[in-house]
Amino acid sequence: MAWMLLLVAGLFEIGWAIGLKYTEGFTRLWPSVGTVTAMVLSVGLLGLAMRTLPVGTAYAVWTGIGALGTVILGIVLFGEPATVARLVCVGLILAGIVGLKLTA
């Protein structure tokens, strides 16, 4: 169950990271409300997952999910470059997440 909470927390982290772009510096009300809500849910679920998962593993996986998803959505939604080097680095993040899950 803790791993599922951590996965959902990571998805909310992606949501708030992408949401920041749409808030335009927190000057737009509804994108700002959604972003702050996603932040609270993300950190709250991370805290629940840390009840049973090691703190270092949980935090690294949480940030890894957020980084991975944010880079992918940045490419898809905002036309950010999808160079070979960026994709290799994203693959390394994914390998780290999988490695931490397998060794926890």
Report a brief summary of the structure:
This protein is mostly helical and 104 residues long. Helix content is 84%, strand content 0%.
The proportion of residues in beta strands is under 5%
- Poorly predicted parts: none
Distance between the termini: 14 Å
**Mean of residue pLDDT?**
97
What is the CA-atom radius of gyration, in angstroms? Answer: 14 Å
- By DSSP (H or I, 4+ residues per run), the number of helices equals 4
Query: What is the H/E order?
Result: HHHH
Number of strands: 0
Shape: flat
Task: Please provide a written account of the structure.
The protein is an all-alpha fold and 104 residues long. Helix content is 84%, strand content 0%. The protein is built from four helices and no strands. It has helices at 2-23, 29-49, 55-78, 84-103. Helix 1 runs antiparallel to helix 2 (29-49), helix 1 packs across helix 3 (55-78) and helix 3 packs antiparallel against helix 4 (84-103). The longest helix is centred in the middle third of the chain and has 24 residues, at 55-78. The radius of gyration is 14 Å and the shape is flat. The two termini are 14 Å apart. The mean pLDDT is 97.
